[in-house]
Input
Amino acid sequence: MSGLVLAAAPALPLHTAGKYVAGAYIVFVALLLIYVAIMAIRLSRTERDLVELNRALEQRAQEDSGRDLEHVP
Amino acid sequence: MTLLPPTPNYGKGLRGLSLATVATLSVAFALVFFYAPLDADQGFVQKIFYLHVPLAIVALCGFILGGLFAIGHLRTGDRAWDMRSYVAIHMSLIFALGALITGSIWAKASWGHWWVWNEPTLVSFLIVFLLFATYQPLRFSIDDPERQARYASVFAIVAGAFVPLNFIAVRLAQGFVHPRVLTLGGGNLPGPMRLTFLVSLVGIALLFATLWKYELTAKSTRMQLRALRRRVLGDEAIRPLGRSAAPS
Amino acid sequence: MRTALAVLRKDLRLELRTFETVPAMALFAVTTFVIFHFGLGQATISGQLAAGVLTVTVLFSGMLGINRLFVTEREQGGFDAFLLAPVDRTSLLLAKAAALFTFLVVLELIAVPAFGLLLLGPSLGPALPGLAVVLLLADLGIAVIGTLVSAIAVHTRARDLIGPVIGLPLMIPALIAMARGAAAPLAAHGAASVPLKWLEVLALYDVVFALLAYAVFDFLLEE
Output
C-alpha cells in the first residue's frame, strides 16, 4: 500500500511498459473498428438492394399507370 | 410463401444504449489513465488489467447467455431466440479473442512470455474459446435450416454448461504451488482501482449489449429486405443465402 | 429401459459378428504406443508422462468408436424406425452410451496391458486398482459426450470431422482429471493412491453431462 503512487496526471512513460499497454488498447480499438468496417460493407450492400427494389417498384408503377391509360375508353 | 412470426423490433433502444456505452467507456478509460493509481508490483503494465479482465468476464457471460437463449429456442420453437443465441455467441467469441490477445500481451509484459500455462484463468479461457470456435463450423455444415437451428441450440446449451465445469477443472489442475501471475485477487483491490475496474466492466458490458443489438438489427433488416425482394421481384432476384443463421 | 437394453443387445451382437469397431480401436492404440516410443525417445516412461500418453491414446482410439456409433442408424433408417416406434427416445441415448462405454472398457482391457508391456517402467500390477477407477469414471464421461457429439455429427455434412472437433474441447475437463489422476498409480517409485479431488472432478463431470445429455437428446432426434 505504501508503494502506491497516486497519479494526478498520466505520466505516459515511453519505455517498454507503455508500448505494451498501448498495444493492448490498440488491439481493442482495432477489433472494434474491424467490426464497424464489416457492418459498413453490409450496410452498403443492403442499401444497394433497397435502391434496386425501389427502382423496380417505380418501373412497375409506371407500367401499370401506362397500361391503365390505354384502357381508358 | 414463408410465414414469419411477427418480427420483433430489434433496433428499439439502440440509440440510448449506444450513447450510454460511449459515455461509460470514455469515463472508464479516463479513470484508467488519470485516476487509478499505479500498481506497486507491476507498474504501468497493470493498466491492461482494466481492459483484459472485463473483456474476459463479459465474453464468458455472453457464452452463458447464448446457452440461455438457446434454451428459450428449444422451449418455444421460435427462431428469433436462436438468432439471439447465435449473435450472443458470435459477439462473445470476438470479445474472447480480444481477451486472449490482451491477456497474452499482459503475460509478455509481466512475465516475459507470450503465453503462460500457470495462469488458470487464461488456460480455461483458451479451452472455452476453442470450444465455441467450433460453433460456426457446426452450424454451417448442417444444410436444413430448422435442424441447423435446433442442433446449434443443443450445442450452445451443452457448451454453456461446460464453462463453469472447465474453470473448476483447470483451477484444480494448476495446484496451489504457483503463485497466480496476473490477478490482483478478488477482494483486495484498493478503492480507486476497484472503482475504475467496475466502471470499465460496466462499459464493456454495455458495449457487448450495444453490438449485440446492432448485429441483431442489421440481420433482421437484411432478412426483411430479402423477403420483400422475393415478394416483389420473384425468387430469381434473391442471391443464395450462403452462410447465414437468419431464419429465412 | 427395455428398449435401451434391446438396442444395446443389438449393437453388441452386431459388433461381435462384424468386429468392425473394437479391433480397429485396439490396433490403433497399440500402434500409437509404438509411435510414442519413438517419438519420446525413451525406453520406459512413468508418472505424469505415462498418464498423459495413456490418456491421449485412449482418447484418440475412442474417437474412432465415436465416429462410427450412429452410422448404421443413419444409413439403414434406424432413426426413422426409432421415431415411429412408441418408445421413450432417450433410451437410444442410454443404449448408445452404454455400447460406447462397453467398447471403451474392452479397448482398455487390451490397451492397458499393452501399455504395461511396451512403455510403462514400473510394474502394472500395483497400479491397476487406482488406474481402473480413474479409467472407468473417465470412460463414463467420454461415453456420454461421445454419444451426444456423435448424434450431432451424424446429420452434418462433414461427419467425421465435426465429431472430434466438437467433442475434444468438451472432454477436456474429464481428460485433465484422467491424466492427473492416473499419474499417482503410475509413479516411478511405487504406486500411490489417486488423489481424491480428481475422482471428484470426474464424478461431477459425469453427473452434470449425463443429466444435460438426458435433457437435450430428444431435440436431436426430431425430424
Observations:
- Confidence is low (pLDDT under 50) at residues 1-12 of chain A.
- The first helix of chain A runs from residue 16 to 71.
- DSSP finds one helix and no strands in chain A.
